[in-house]
Specification:
The complex is a heterodimer of chains A (about 350) and B (about 190). Helix content of chain A is about 45%, strand content about 10%. Chain A contains twelve helices and eight strands. A two-stranded antiparallel ribbon of chain A has the order 1-4. In chain A, a hairpin with a 5-residue loop joins strand 2 and strand 3. In chain A, helix 2 packs across helix 3 and helix 2 runs antiparallel to helix 4. The longest helix of chain A is centred in the C-terminal third of the chain and has 67 residues. Chain A starts with a helix and ends with a helix. In chain A, about 30% of the residues are buried. With about 190 residues, chain B is mainly α. Chain B has one domain. In chain B, helix 3 packs antiparallel against helix 8 and helix 4 crosses helix 5. Classes of the chains: A mainly alpha (about 350), B mainly alpha (about 190).
Amino acid sequence: MSLLVPILVLSGLGAAMGVGLAVAAKFLSVAEDPRVEALVDILPGANCGACGYPGCSGYAKGLVAGEDVTLCSPGGNATVKDIAAILGVEAVTVVEKVALVKCAGGRNVAPDRSLYVGPQTCRAAVLVGFGNKECRWGCIGLGDCAEVCEDDAVEFTADGLAYVVADACIACARCVKACPRDLIEMVPKDRKVHVLCSSHDPGKITKNVCQVGCIACKLCSRRDGKSFVIEDNNATVLYGEGSRDVPTAALICTPGAVWDANMYDQVTWLTDPEARVHLKEQQAEFKAAERAERAAKKKKAAEAKKAKEAAADKAEAEPAVGKPEKTEEAPDQEPEKGAE
Amino acid sequence: MELLILAINAILVGNLVLAKFLGICPFLGVSKKISTALGMTMAVAFVMVLASTVTWLIHVGLLKPFGIGYLRTIAFILVIASLVQLTEMAIQKFSPSLYEALGIFLPLITTNCAILGVAVMNVDESRSFLPMLVYSFAASLGFGLALLLFAGIRERLETAAIPSAFKGAAAALVVAGILSLAFMGFTGLV
């Protein structure tokens, strides 16, 4: 009996609490928006955080609360369309993006200044006297970006330069945050012409530390000011509206800081010395052609000027002949008026 | 008058957090912002008064008559856990923003020693119903006072120029210690 009482009391208490909670759960249940579940299903599930929410389910909740539908960069246009369909809003076309390492200076072209033996992360390396590279802006190649990339899209050249394989990149932008030198930028996937240099040193210094660095000579921005801008000693491609892939940009860039994907694929461009040699030839050819064209134009202009001058001479002569004719006509008409 | 003394004792002299080391977890965890600290204070106050009342009733009406006072701890924990669950559901329903802000600390009230401590203290001191009610409410007010003071200090601490080695949890614990030191000044007030 003395054993039974505590058992009964405690189980009775437990049962009462359980029933109470079950009833409360029914009355206090929070109905979740069914759209949230549908949205979680169509989102890529990468939980990458590119949208600014902690995960796909967070973004789904945000979407139902009226968040911008274009924030999912891994999903791209297809996902925007699906989201818009579920939410019943109009789909917007987004520019699909991809990460780009804006540095082409592997150790072959941008040498190290010293040996670095500290912790093997870029973040640590840049803390030691601006890093161990001659160029204090370029890629160190210790792979902080590869560390955070869950899709193994970051690879390295033999000379310790990180680059992003566009096909593997889901545009989560985690590497952008990871790079202590801010070398990585999200660029439109369909763009082909990029400046692979982030140095803000004056051209003179850049030239000394890197063979392929931008020296801010303004040749590109002068050619197309809507697509290139020189800011703080560095040429930047404007990827926004009104800009374009300037087809001649790579051909006029003296140090070869402009990479044109139509001419060379990424790996060739970054690793193959032949590509540079080939480009130099192309540049010389282009320069010659342009010079010839300019000469031809000049010649043509000179000819045109000559022709114009001749025409002007002629025109000057003509009115002298025409004027008397007019004065002759006028008196003819007046007598008629007077006769009426 | 006695009730007033009891209340002042619970709020200042025998402050739950700063004099009795109870409820340190939410004190350190939810004190980053005054707004969430206020939410936590209200949740704790609600649960504390409710839990103390119910546990007192169970003790007086169930455990004592059957002579099974030794089941006190497990019975109280059962009741408190259920009440916290209930509070969690209610907050989720009526104030989703507070629910988000409290996060993990709401379930942590379940194992909050302050709640169980107050319930046990009430029974140990064999308080009658009214003093029990006053003490529970005052104790939760004392908890809230400590929490809000601390949150206010921490908000300023965020922008203060303090040595980087102290930043974060270290500074919070140091401040908690100093705050406790200050409350020790109330000793002998009643």
